[in-house]
Design a protein that fits this description.
Structural class: mainly alpha
Number of strands: 0
Helix content: over 70%
Largest sheet: none
Number of helices: 16
Radius of gyration: 19 Å
Shape: flat
Distance between the termini: 32 Å
Length: about 300
Amino acid sequence: MHVTPTEGVEPSTVPPSTRRDVVMSYVALTKPRIIELLLLTTVPVMFLAAQAVPPLWLVVATVVGGTLSAGSANALNCVVDADIDQLMRRTSRRPLPRHQVSTRGALYFGLALGVLSTVWLWTLVNPLSAMLALAANVFYVIGYTMILKRRTTQNIVWGGAAGCFPALIGWTAVTNELAWAPVVLFMVVFFWTPPHFWALAMRYREDYAAASVPMLPSVASSDEVSRQIVIYSWVMVATSLLLWPYTGWFYPAIAITLGIVFLIEAYDLRSRARDTEDLSVIKPMRLFHFSNAYLALLFVASAIDPFIK
């Protein structure tokens, strides 16, 4: 989940003056709004895996460990991307561009969270969940941020896989093994990420161009981007239905309904993007905001399904 910053405001370069300011600056490095969405794809899968209400202590342990791991990845991402974050309107108000946190402090903070999350999950959940969280962390920081992001228009397609791991972690936290069902949900998030992020990137395409980041909307026409969004949307909706054999009637009913609405939004975006680059006409944030609701409701449906006969 992403936060749209206040437009037209220059980032402050005044260091935090109170202990609370310092704490809030470090918390901001973890990108809490993004973590919210990641946890929303973790906890419902635990209900699906348990086919009941999972133990509260296990949910809390998994949520805390997942939060620490995601916070670590996001903080390290801020360190690596500090140079381009200050060039982009969407990211210029993060703590490093505003000089509220030192680069060394952010680096140590991110590494400490990574170590703590691995030890926490290994000890209180299980080693498999801990290793999956660590793999997601490493892939996001090294695979996406350091290798893919500045080199290819497919950056978010492959790099977005890091955000798919919570589905696997939630399942393994309960069962201590992988299965086909969480892999399906992993793939749903994988195919959801390009339409979701490209819609946002269309809104901020000038930012990516200024920072020389080849995000697809900054190097391709809106017509082409919207075409790609429609393709990925179809694959995402089709993939979501592969969970059907493992659920009752409630999940597929919600998946079909949400999928139809998502496709309508994608095709509407495609229609608006034909023969124009005017963002006031294209309105890409409509799809972006609905994509957040789509994923949240789909995963909640997977959690509710076991309780509806």
